[in-house]
Design a protein that fits this description.
By secondary structure, the chain is mainly α. The protein has one domain. 80% of the residues lie in helices and 0% in strands. Helix 2 runs antiparallel to helix 8, helix 3 runs antiparallel to helix 4 and helix 6 runs antiparallel to helix 7. It is elongated.
Length: 222
């Protein structure tokens, strides 16, 4: 009983290394986007010739996505830990919900792309140019370019708003989040590398959190 009481009174504490989750997410997602961008043509109506030459790179990218998702969940936990008692129910709901929807649509798009690769490995000649391929390719394209991007924008806008009101991040970083979210929201269809905006902003936010944690630790030390 004494051991249980001690554990309860101590409570759970956020691991110091949890702030690195944002860095891991950024690097993994950037690597995924780069592999996809150089391996898969941007035109969703292409017949599937990339499967013969670049399926290995795409498969590697799909295997990175689950680890990026795990890191992103930890990153959300880090942000909520920094908010603490300042967390507002409305913004917390939109913040947490958009983060989960971002991951859900990202996983769906990755699973669809992975299904294309598995089907190609089983029956390559029948898949290329087929109606099944075009449907799966169009579905993955729509999920990535519409739903994943829009949820990333909502997450950036909500997080930036929370940062402005609670000062959990520098003001300039919150304003930058607004600007990049608007650019991503309306310009993702015109700029092929626009997907890099979201993980790049998360990278800056994570570095800011790590620097702030280091300063607080240095201030507490004698």
């Amino acid at each position: 009983m004494a051991t249980n009481d001690t554990f309860t009174s101590a409570g759970l504490r956020t691991p110091g290394a949890a702030a690195i989750a944002g860095l891991l997410f950024s690097f993994l997602l950037l690597a995924t986007f780069v592999l996809l961008r150089i391996s898969v043509p941007p035109d969703p109506q292409e017949p599937g010739s990339w499967l013969r030459a670049n399926s290995g790179a795409v498969e590697l990218a799909m295997n990175l996505v689950p680890f990026a998702g795990i890191a992103f969940l930890w990153f959300i936990g880090v942000l909520r830990d920094r908010l603490g008692q300042l967390e507002d129910r409305f913004f917390a709901t939109v913040f947490f919900g958009s983060g989960l929807l971002f991951l859900g649509t990202l996983f769906l798009a990755s699973a669809t792309t992975g299904g294309i690769i598995i089907a190609f490995a089983a029956k390559p000649e029948q898949l290329i140019g087929s109606a099944t391929y075009h449907f799966a390719r169009a579905a993955a394209y729509a999920m990535m370019n519409i739903y994943v991007v829009k949820m990333a924008c909502v997450f950036m806008i909500t997080t930036s708003t929370i940062a402005l009101y609670t000062a959990i991040a520098p003001r300039w970083l919150a304003i930058l989040g607004y600007v990049l979210a608007v650019l991503l929201l309306f310009g993702s269809s015109f700029v092929s590398w626009s997907f890099a905006v979201f993980p790049a902003w998360i990278l800056l936010l994570s570095i800011s959190i790590l620097v702030d944690n280091w300063r607080r630790s240095a201030a507490r030390s004698p």
